[in-house]
Design brief:
- The complex is a heterodimer.
- By secondary structure, chain A is an all-beta fold.
- Chain A has no helices and ten strands.
- Chain A has one domain: Rieske Iron-sulfur Protein.
- Chain A has a seven-stranded antiparallel β-sheet, with no helix packed on it.
- Chain B is an alpha/beta fold.
- Chain B has 26 helices and 39 strands.
- Chain B is elongated, with a radius of gyration of 33 Å.
- Classes of the chains: A mainly beta, B alpha/beta.
- Chains A and B meet through strand 2, strand 3, strand 6 and strand 7 of A and helix 15, helix 16 and helix 17 of B.
- The complex binds siroheme, flavin-adenine dinucleotide, iron/sulfur cluster (SF4) and FE2/S2 (inorganic) cluster.
- Iron/sulfur cluster binds next to loops of chain B.
Chain lengths: ~110, ~850
């Protein structure tokens, strides 16, 4: 379902319960590959799913953790860490993936699109 | 009274001379005045480009000189009057000297093209140059209006590429114009040049070779560079880095001889024919030749310091190390020694791998015994080990030294006389002595030997030397746990911890990462905590363990059905063939005696497993830190030499230890006689049949650092054999470090093989019953992990490409056909296959 709020269109991808804590899942949102992560405190983050180093759409399958306090996912291919807050790569500062607005509305995980 | 030394030039080499002299002149024989043209105290010019990448002037500044040195900055010497032993500066100051050292360096060479003096045309040599470049780049970036902001860099040598990368960092699109047919023509040959160009272009830098800039003009507030082929390039700024010329004008005007191609002519002692005047660094033409690198300059400074104090030092040809490594570019390029095989009879060995994007060449003496030099493009990781070996005997076959997967050269291979840091002429022997004296980390080594303080390319070797010297390195798994894997095992087993959350809250910090989570997952699995994807454990697994298959480079997976001992029926072969055909998978016989099927999408995995399970197979572990395969030879079933049933034993062992999680993967093999066709001694545990029973070998390894396994027990029967293997594996699982295979573990084990034998054969620690019981639990509780997923809808639901579109396959995955089978389609940025990698020894 699509709702309009604060200028963003919110697209529901799944229920919160469908996401395992500290693990990701991939979603296809208007042709975009989005990696959605649920953390241990039930906060939800969304970044681009395509790993810029290998080109494979797999960031959602990486291990979630933190590096120096920043929540990150480690690419499962060559293990670079990406910040779940702003998408930048902690190992190669020049590289970043997209970040998506995300919220949980009555158990529904929603991605915001402009 | 102290004599007066005047040093003209306060650059890197002049600074080194003064600090060397101050260090050694304990009697105070010399009073020193340094006259510098630049307005700032000496700084690290080699690191100049880092000034656009985060370093400040303070970071680059060289150590301050003491107060017996008078430093006059921003006032160049304009006249040298040798008759009166006097210099005059631009501000009119006159100084007399007893000795004069010219250390005036070089000036950038700017080709005499019209327009080269226009505003926004720069050279790239000093911090002042970089300040001006930064300001112009900032203005260009801030300029309103559309279009790219670009910089033309004239010269595609070492400095030009560095400058181009700096322009990139400043937000401009660089275009490199090189008159030679390839980049870095001095260092790199044709083969390397083509690859280098490719790598540079991938860094968003345009390259034009074989053309010159013939004019620069102004057009509506911007610049236009006209090339010799008529093409015009728009630019916000133009940077000339087309080479350098020795700054020898003082020598010329005072009648001192200069080299054929410029430079103050000096002998091996760095002295000019006027006995009171010396020249060092880039301005000197040592026996006619100039050197554009800092290492030879430092060597000259040391010689002159020695001479000024009455010594007899002189330049050794060996000190003229012309090795260079490109910094900052994001592209690896290095050349060292006689890179162009100029030595008589020199042979070149080239390994060109366009697929991997690497080009390596080493130059060896005519008998192929001595390393003379080399060029590395695309991957210069071997630079640190190869460069110090120049002039020494080759420790291995030349091809193996540069071939991908060839020999890894450790610091061990180097003689003590090998120069590890060529910038500062520090040998391995000197570094070892410093480590023995208590320099136990890289910063300590830097400050007491100076190694690593210039270009930094020797730092990896410093680390290796520290490691080799057994300096204690932290074994903590990662930032979240201050414990080694073995300690974590004790904690988890001892406290009966069953989840990661419990562990990190009681013994760690933060929420873990991709280093500690898989370690804890493996420990929990070794201790028997049910299915690896049960509950919170699922979140800890590496992607392969999480999907129970091996991730490939395009995001698909491979499935490797277990074929215990490599024994398979014709029907079994047919099933695997049918599965691969029906799902369109690529198949290959592996090095572990089984069949790998590649290219399965996540959502296909359960369907493939189902077909395998129905036919009596299970998918196998080609992933995970666990047992891979137990290879076998046909043994006594067929072979005329076989003395035991090696296949039967291999099948038994593979079924016993399958699924056992461990610090690293482990492998095994069983041979039916001493001919060893199963290569059992290259395995973590290997079994070889004897007339009387079995011999057991442990700690073998293939892979990167091969090691033959050691004999631990002889002529044991099958039951004893299995019992000792049980104990051996469990002991390894409890005590090894993260990703430490049995070979490395055994090498590091105090007391070595004898101790291991005491523990697992003689039960010296009294733990064997416990170890056996732990293994018995594993064997009893083993369950097919893949079937476990098929039977559990909650686990099954994770096997989709998209959580919101379970039926849709990942659209980024596509295949092409090669040799009749599917392989991942190439993506933009993938290496392009230009031809087969060539490996040849060419002589000339
Ligand atoms: C498929 C296979 C190559 C093949 O086409 O033959 C293979 C493929 C891989 N090997 Fe291997 N190795 C394969 C046999 C070997 C062998 C030969 C053997 O087992 O007899 C060796 C040398 C023996 C040894 O391990 O001591 C071998 C030494 C390695 C190493 C180096 C290990 C070391 O200690 O130096 C790695 C890297 C690692 O594990 O860290 C590695 C890692 C890998 C990985 C896991 C790399 C990766 O992360 O993608 C590959 C994944 C397999 C996959 O996706 O299915 N592979 N690899 C072979 C699978 C055998 C099997 O049926 O399980
Ligand atoms: C961007 C860049 C990257 C480099 N990278 C490397 C590298 O990776 N590896 C490497 O080995 N080398 C590298 N070099 C070269 C290295 O910096 C020089 O070899 C080294 O600085 C030479 O030292 P020097 O003292 O002879 O000359 P300089 O450091 O140039 O010092 C000479 C000084 O003398 C001053 N001077 C000149 N004329 C007069 C005068 N009449 N009166 C008073 N003062 C005068 C100049 O202003 C200057 O400050 C690089 C150089 C640059 C510019
Ligand atoms: S190891 Fe011995 S028994 Fe096995 S195949 Fe080779 S020769 Fe035959
Ligand atoms: S080799 Fe350049 S700092 Fe050591």
């Amino acid at each position: 379902m699509t709702a309009v709020e604060t200028g963003l269109r919110w697209e529901t991808v799944c229920l919160l319960e469908r996401l395992q804590p500290e693990r990701g899942a991939a979603a296809l949102v208007e042709g975009r590959q989005v990696a959605v992560f649920r953390l241990h405190d039930d906060s939800v983050h969304a970044i681009g799913n395509i790993d810029p180093f290998s080109g494979a759409a797999v960031l959602s399958r990486g291990i979630v953790g933190d590096k120096g306090g920043v929540p990150v996912v480690a690419s499962p291919v060559y293990k670079q860490a990406f910040s779940l807050l702003d998408g930048h790569c902690l190992d190669e500062p020049d590289v970043a993936v997209a970040v998506y607005a995300v919220r949980v509305d009555d158990h529904r995980v929603q991605i915001g699109l402009p | 009274m102290a004599r007066h030394l005047v040093v003209v030039g306060n650059g890197m080499v002049g600074h080194r001379l003064v600090s060397a002299l101050r260090e050694r002149d304990t009697a105070g024989a010399w009073r020193i005045t340094v006259l510098g043209e630049e307005g700032r105290p000496a700084y690290d010019r080699v690191g100049l480009s880092t000034y656009v990448d985060g370093s400040s002037e303070e970071d680059l500044r060289l150590p301050e000189l003491d107060d017996r040195v008078e430093l006059r900055l921003g006032d160049p010497v304009v006249t040298l009057d040798r008759g009166a032993r006097r210099v005059v500066t631009a501000s009119g100051a006159e100084l007399t000297y007893d000795a004069l050292v010219l250390a005036t360096g070089s000036v950038p060479f700017v080709p005499p093209v019209p327009g080269r003096d226009l505003p926004n045309c720069f050279v790239y040599r000093t911090l002042d140059d970089l300040d001006a470049i930064k300001a112009a780049a900032a203005a260009a970036v801030a300029r309103p209006g559309p279009g790219r902001r670009s910089a033309v860099v004239v010269g595609g040598g070492l400095l030009g590429l560095e400058a181009a990368r700096a322009m990139r960092l400043l937000g401009l699109s660089p275009q490199v114009v090189e008159i030679a047919p390839r980049l870095m023509p001095v260092q790199v040959d044709e083969g390397g040049g083509a690859l280098l160009r490719n790598l540079v272009e991938r860094q968003d830098m345009a390259v034009r070779c074989g053309v010159a800039v013939s004019a620069v003009s102004e057009d509506r507030g911007r610049l236009v560079a006209t090339l010799s082929d008529g093409i015009e390039l728009d630019a916000d700024l133009v940077v000339f880095s087309a080479g350098i010329r020795a700054a020898d004008s003082l020598a010329r005007s005072s009648g001192l001889p200069v080299g054929e191609r410029g430079g103050v002519l000096v002998d091996a002692a760095c002295r000019t024919p006027d006995g009171c005047v010396w020249a060092i660094g880039e301005c000197a033409a040592l026996e006619g030749r100039t050197y554009g690198l800092v290492a030879p300059g430092y060597a000259m400074a040391e010689v002159v310091a020695d001479r000024l104090l009455g010594g007899s030092g002189s330049m050794q040809p060996a000190e003229l190390d012309m090795s260079t490594k490109l910094k900052l570019l994001g592209v690896d390029v290095a050349s060292f020694g006689d890179a162009h095989a100029a030595t008589d009879g020199a042979l070149e060995v080239v390994v060109n791998d366009p697929v991997a994007g690497t080009y390596s060449k080493i130059v060896v003496s005519d008998d192929a015994r001595t390393l003379l030099g080399g060029v590395l493009v695309g991957d210069a990781s071997k630079y640190a080990t190869l460069r110090p070996l120049v002039g020494s005997a080759l420790p291995a076959d030349p091809v193996a030294m540069i071939a991908p997967g060839g020999v890894e050269l450790g610091a061990d291979a180097l003689p003590d006389s090998a120069q590890i840091c060529s910038c500062n002429a520090v040998t391995k022997g000197a570094l070892k002595a410093a480590i023995d004296d208590g320099a136990h980390d890289v910063p300590a080594l830097k400050s007491c030997t100076r190694a690593g303080t210039s270009c930094g390319s020797c730092i990896p070797m410093l680390k290796t030397l520290l490691l080799g010297a057994g300096v204690e390195v932290s074994k903590a798994v990662c930032e979240h746990f201050a414990y080694s894997r073995a300690e974590l095992f004790q904690i988890i087993a001892g406290a009966g911890i069953r989840t990661f959350s419990e562990l990190v809250e009681s013994h760690g910090t933060g929420r873990g990462c991709d280093l500690c989570k898989p370690v804890v997952a493996s420990i929990l699995a070794s201790l028997g905590n049910g299915h690896v994807l049960e509950g919170e454990q699922a979140a800890l697994q590496d992607t392969n363990d999480h999907f129970l298959a091996n991730l490939q480079r395009n995001g698909t997976y491979s499935v490797v059905p277990r074929i215990p001992g490599g024994e398979i029926t014709p029907d079994g072969l047919i099933v695997i063939g049918e599965v691969a055909r029906d799902f369109g998978l690529y198949t290959k016989i592996t090095g572990g005696q089984r069949i790998d099927m590649f290219g399965a999408r996540v959502e296909q995995l359960p369907q493939i497993w189902k077909r395998l399970v129905d036919a009596g197979f299970e998918s196998g572990h080609a992933y995970g830190k666990s047992l891979r395969t137990v290879k076998s030879c046909v043994g006594s079933s067929w072979c005329r030499y076989g003395v035991q049933d090696s296949v039967g034993m291999a099948v038994l062992l593979e079924l016993r230890y399958r699924g056992l999680r461990s610090p690293h993967k482990f492998k095994s093999g069983v041979s039916g006689c001493a001919r060893e066709c199963a290569e059992a001694r290259s395995k973590d545990f290997g079994v070889i049949a004897t007339e009387k029973g079995w011999n057991l070998y442990v700690g073998g390894n293939g892979g990167a650092n091969p090691r033959h396994a050691d004999l631990i027990v002889q002529d044991v029967d099958s039951e004893q054999l299995v019992r000792i293997i049980d104990r051996f594996l469990m002991f390894y699982i409890r005590t090894a470090d993260r990703l430490q295979r049995t070979a490395a573990w055994l090498d590091a084990l105090e007391g070595g093989l004898d101790h291991l034998r005491e523990v697992v054969v003689d039960d010296s620690l009294g733990i064997c019953a416990d170890l056996e019981a732990a293994m018995a639990t594993h064997v009893e509780n083993y369950a097919d992990e893949w079937r476990g997923v098929l039977e559990d809808p909650a686990k099954l639901e994770r096997y989709v490409s998209f959580v919101n579109a379970p039926e849709t396959p990942d659209p980024t995955i596509s295949f092409i056909t090669e040799r009749g089978q599917p392989i991942p389609a190439r993506r933009e940025g993938d290496p392009v296959l230009v031809g087969m990698p060539a490996m040849n020894g060419v002589s000339r």
